[in-house]
Hints:
- It is a single chain.
- Mean pLDDT is 91; it is low at 1-6.
- The chain is globular, with a radius of gyration of 14 Å.
- The chain has a single domain (11-120), classed as STAS domain (Transcription Regulator spoIIAA).
- The chain has four helices and five strands; from the N terminus they run E-E-H-E-H-E-H-E-H.
- The longest helix is centred in the middle third of the chain and has 16 residues, at 67-82.
- By secondary structure, it is α/β, with parallel strands linked by helices.
- Strands 1-2-3-4-5 form a five-stranded mixed beta sheet.
Amino acid sequence: MAMQPQLNTRAHVDQVKAPDGSPVAVLRFTGDITSTSRDVVFGAYREVPAAARKVVFDFSKMEYMNSSGIALIIELLMAASKADRSVQSFGLSPHFQKVFIMVGLNKYTHLHPDETTACSAFDD
Length: 124
């Protein structure tokens, strides 16, 4: 009997407030982001309230991301852009910060060292 691949991806949305008191949806990723993560990642993104214009991606508990995972993040960023949402990100390891910059993702989401900085970075 073939073993099923273990899905080591979790994602959920928290509602927090920016320093100015405006609402921010934080999409928190845990574990790996790969091609098998699509349902979990997009399922969590669909939990972001429709009215939310400020979204933060929290990668601080992400353990691994491959090229398929990067493609999923690109799709998320494009979906957020189409929905007129601004996205900030934090928690990427130095390696993945370099990857995001090399791929050009820093044009669609700014990379920050922590959640407070990310939540403070939105233009109103």
